[in-house]
Amino acid sequence: MALFLSDSLILRLENFLFMDIALITPAPRTSRQGNRITAARWAGILRGLGLRVSVREEYDGRRCDVMVALHALRSHASVRRFRESRPEQPLVLALTGTDLYGDIHTHPQARESLEMATRIIVLQSMGAEELPERLRPVVRVICQSVRPPARLPRPSADAFEVCVLGHLRPVKDPFRAARAARLLGPSSRIRILHVGGALSPEMEAAAREEAASNPRYRWLGEVPRWKALRILARSRLHAISSKMEGGANAVCEAIACSVPTLSSRIPGSMGLLGRDYPGYFPFMDTEALASLLERAETDAAFCREIREWCIRLKPLVDPARERENWRSLLDDLFPASAAAQKPRPRPREAGAS
Fold first, then answer.
1. Around Cβ 350, how many Cβ atoms within 10 Å?
2. Considering 7, 40, 98, 202, which has the largest number of Cβ atoms within 10 A of its Cβ?
3. Are the CB atoms for 121 and 142 separated by under 8 Å?
4. Which pLDDT tens digit goes with each residue over 61-75?
5. Whole-model pTM?
6. Which residues contact 179 (CB under 8 A, 6 or more apart)?
7. What are the b/e assignments for 50-81, b being 16+ CB within 10 Å?
8. Which structural domains are found in the chain, ordered by start?
């Protein structure tokens, strides 16, 4: 079947051809943390649009047409170096949870990064509310996309499994679901499966102690992402108890896998799941989370309600949508030149004078 491209699409593709992007993330190459996962996915999207992309931990001064930097504070040195060496080139700054709900309110360097950005990316619809009004016109929302496992595994018949997906860090309040599970009655079949590496010896010791003393909690440690997605996909619920999130990969992954989420009521989750989503609990409220866990396990109508709610959100995390959002952002940064948009003269017919 022949493929016909419109003149406008051809211009857009030609506009991106041979363009170089420096993608800066402070997370090292070997990291499995969210920022590195995001950077790797964005690099794939941008390469798919025909751009040349280099992923680095810091900007080294080499020539590029655009710099995309994750993290306003931790990438500040790279942002400043790029802006000083290439003042006319576009600079795209993507904000993390610690940026939005911490650093930009307390660190002058993070605020300076905002001022130097040509465009600012937030990962969920409520992110822009944390920025000064005058900066909101340059904000673009790009939700993170997920490709779920090709075949979703069946839930366990032996337990009501609840997946906690995330590295063990204090900001994640990582043991809240485990503590809530302790409050459930003896008839409960809930089992918490915690996937994520311990980022400190203290967190590792706490996870091992919790697993040894709590029969409803299993810490699986750090596993490859494909395996983590399969564990999530077979679970009946996903729980996230963070203090702050920019737009959690884990929530997007749960949506893609049709697994409903119970979340602390924080803007980073509300910007993805919606303000009126019925699966929220107050941050650090163990009893409220225990009540939601019990309700999800015993109230089929409630469990169906939150599952169907999350299924309706699946277009939000569709890879095609994220790709189109990036294409739109690049169109915004590099509109076709006036000369390229002028109608081309028709060739003269043979014999015409």
1. 5
2. 98
3. yes
4. 889 999 999 999 999
5. 0.86
6. 286
7. ebebebebebeeeebbbbbbbbbbbbbebbeb
8. 16-144+318-337 (3.40.50.2000), 160-315 (3.40.50.2000)
